[in-house]
Amino acid sequence: MMTKRFHRPLCTVLLLSLALTPIAAAQEVDSSACGGQVYAALAHEEREYRAVLFGQKSVASLPIGSVQYDKEGNTWMKTGENQWKSLAEGFGETVWNNTLMNEQMDVPVRRGILETRKALTSELIPPLTQSLRALQCRMRAECALARASQTAVGLAPIKIQPDGCIDFEWKPFPACKPEGQQSAGVMTCDDAADSIMDRETVLLRMVVTEDAAYRTLLQFEGIFQGFLSDFRFSLLSPLWQTVRIIGNLTNIPCFLSECNE
Question: How far apart are CA 108 and CA 112, in angstroms?
Answer without folding.
Answer: 12
